[in-house]
Amino acid sequence: MDLVNIFIRSAFVDNMIFAFFFGMCSYLAVSKTVKTAVGLGLAVIFVLTVTIPINFLIENYVLKEGALTWLGEEFSSVSLNYLTFIMFIAVIASTVQLVEMIVEKISPALYGALGIFLPLIAVNCAILGGALFMQEKQFATISQATVYGLGSGVGWFIAVVLIAAIRERIRYANIPGPLRGVGMAFLITGLMGLAFLGFMGFEI
Amino acid sequence: MAETTEVLEEKKVKVKEREPLFSKKNKKLISDPLDENNPVTIQVLGICSALAVTVQMKAAVVMSISVLFVLILANVTVSLIRNLIPNRIRIIVQLVVVAALVIVVDQVLKAYLFDVSKELSVFIGLIITNCIIMGRLEAFALGNKPWPSALDAVGNSLGYGMVLVIVSFFKELFGSGKLFGVEIFGNLAEKTGLYSMGYMDNGLMLLPPSSLILVAIYIWVQKIRNPSLIESH
Fold this sequence. Notes:
The structure holds 2 protein chains of 2 kinds.
Chain A: H1 2-13, H2 16-20, H3 24-30, H4 34-63, H5 84-106, H6 108-114, H7 118-121, H8 125-137, H9 142-170, H10 182-196
Helix pairs in contact in A: 1-9, 4-5, 4-8, 4-9, 5-6, 5-8, 8-9
Chain B: H1 2-12, H2 24-31, H3 47-52, H4 57-80, H5 90-112, H6 114-120, H7 122-125, H8 131-139, H9 146-176, E1 178-179, E2 182-183, H10 208-225
Antiparallel strand pairs in B: 1-2
C-alpha cells in the first residue's frame, strides 16, 4: 500500500513537469509529434528506474553522514555530503552511456527506437532532479526509491505524450502569430498544470 | 559564411590590429541575448529553474547571480581547454567542470544565505543540468577564445536573469503583495492600505502553473514588439 501511494504521489500529485518543471527543455523540444514524445518518454522512465536505485545506494553507503561505517568504526562521523552533485551526475552520465551500449548489443530494435534519445537524457533535469528529491525525501528502503523513480518517469511520460497530442491537433488551428510555437506550448502546459492541481492531497 | 570572410580580411592585413575589448561584435554578444536571442523565451533553454524559483524576487535574484557566476567561469574554463578535450567525452568533461562550480556556489549559499538556500533546495543542484549552461558550452565556448566566451556568458545569464526578475516581480506582487519581502499593498492581517478596501491577493499567482502563463504572456508581448521573431509553425 505504501508503495502504491508513493507511485501515485510521484506520478500525479508531484508530477515532474506540472509541479516542478523538471525536464522542460527536452519536453518542449520533443513534443512536436506523438511518436518522438513516446520515444523520449520511455527512455526517461527507463533511465529514472535504473539510476534512482543506484543513487540511493551511493547516498546510503557512501555520501550520508555515518554512511561509511561499514569500512570501520573510525569512519562513522565522516560526511561526504558536499560531493552529492558530482557523484550523482557522474553516475547518471555513466549509466546512460552503459545503458546505451547494452541496449545496442542486446536489442537493436529497442536501440533504434530509443537510441538517439539516450544521450540527450544525461542532461535532462528530470533525472538529476529525481535523484536530488530522492535524497531529500530520505526513503527507508531501496524498493521505495525504485518505485519513486518509476512513478516520476511515468508522470513525465504522461505529461509529454499528452502535450504532444494537443500540439499535433493545434497545428491546424489559427493561432495569433506571436503565440505560435513556443508561446502556445507554454500556455497549454500552464492550463494542464492547473488541471493537475486537482490531484493535490490525493491519497489511497 | 561571415566568419570565413572575416578570416580572409584578417589575412589581407598583414599586421593584424588587436581587436578592442569592447568592439561592436563583442557588444553584440552581450546585447543579443537580452532581447532577440533571449535564452529563455527564444532559445527555450533553462526553463526548469526559470519557472520554479520565481515565487519570490529574492530567490530569483540569488538564482540569477549563481547562474551568472557558474556560466562565466564554466565558459572561460571550457574555452581555455577547448583544444585538449577529446570530442567523444566532451559532455562528461563539461559536466564535471560545471558540477565543481555548482558545488562551490551551493556551499557558499549554505554558509552565508541559509534561508534562501533552503528555499531554492534542489534547484541550485539543477544548475548542473541547466540547458543554458550546456548549450552555451557546446555552441560557443568550444569554438571561441576565452574573452568572447566570457562576454557571451554575461549576455546569456543577464537575459536569463531578466526573465526571472520580471516573472517573479509579477508573481510576488500579485501573489503575496510584497516585493523583496517588503509589503507594498499594506498588511493583510491588520487590513491596512489596499486591503482596507477589500483587495485580496491572488493565491493562484503563487502556484506553479501561473509562471508558465506569465512566460507565455512575456513571449507574446516580445513577439508583438518584434514581429521578425514570429515562428511560421
